[in-house]
């Protein structure tokens, strides 16, 4: 998680920086939601910020392999959103933390790594003080990482596509309530992070 040198990112490295950031940010969300004991994580530094890294091998591998598998699709501009979804034992969604992203791989102007990483570090700082993250979830809560693609990648032409399967979580029938967390709108990367949860008018699941 060491910060990169202060240099101009070549084409493709912007996507790599974004994917590494998503791994750290998703781990931070899972840690702050209290899904696992605090001992399942350890403190590390990323872009000169104190963050949490998963210690449990299966948890670490799930987050790392899932997010890393997005890299070729981010590079091709196929990924619209990445979500961390928490749902109850009946597979009903309780909360969605959404990363909406746009990467301009054709951007030709100079962008230093340090400037990009500084902007992304602000998201991690905001997450650490975001009050809704302290909302207690039910003991049977589960979670998953979901990616929303602009177009579905062909599983026949990419081995990475085979690792992504359609989600079977139950969708909300009413528009969700959206709480903005942090955003940046610049070239070559635009990124929004916001929380979605069901509206009060959302029908309750049958007992």
Automatic annotation (TrEMBL):
InterPro entries: HORMA_dom, HORMA_dom_sf, Mad2-like. Residues 12-195 form the HORMA domain. PANTHER family: MITOTIC SPINDLE ASSEMBLY CHECKPOINT PROTEIN MAD2, MITOTIC SPINDLE ASSEMBLY CHECKPOINT PROTEIN MAD2B. This is HORMA domain-containing protein. The lineage of its organism: Eukaryota, Viridiplantae, Streptophyta, Embryophyta, Tracheophyta.
């Amino acid at each position: 998680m060491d910060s990169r040198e202060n240099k101009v990112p070549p084409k493709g490295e912007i996507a790599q920086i974004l994917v590494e950031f998503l791994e750290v940010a998703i781990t931070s969300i899972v840690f702050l939601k209290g899904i696992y004991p605090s001992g399942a994580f350890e403190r590390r530094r990323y872009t000169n910020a104190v963050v949490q890294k998963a210690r449990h091998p299966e948890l670490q591998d799930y987050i790392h392999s899932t997010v890393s598998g997005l890299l070729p699709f981010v590079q091709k501009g196929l990924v619209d959103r990445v979500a961390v979804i928490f749902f109850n034992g009946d597979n009903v969604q309780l909360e969605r933390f959404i990363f909406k992203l746009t990467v301009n791989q054709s951007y030709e102007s100079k962008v230093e790594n340090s400037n990009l990483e500084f902007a992304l570090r602000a998201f991690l700082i905001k997450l650490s003080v975001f009050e809704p993250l302290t909302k207690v979830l039910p003991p049977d809560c589960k979670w998953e990482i979901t990616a929303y693609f602009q177009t579905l990648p062909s599983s026949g032409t990419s081995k990475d596509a085979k690792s992504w399967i359609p989600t079977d979580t139950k969708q909300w029938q009413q528009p969700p309530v959206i709480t903005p967390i942090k955003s940046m709108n610049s070239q070559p990367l635009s990124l929004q992070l916001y929380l979605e949860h069901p509206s009060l008018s959302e029908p309750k699941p049958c007992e």
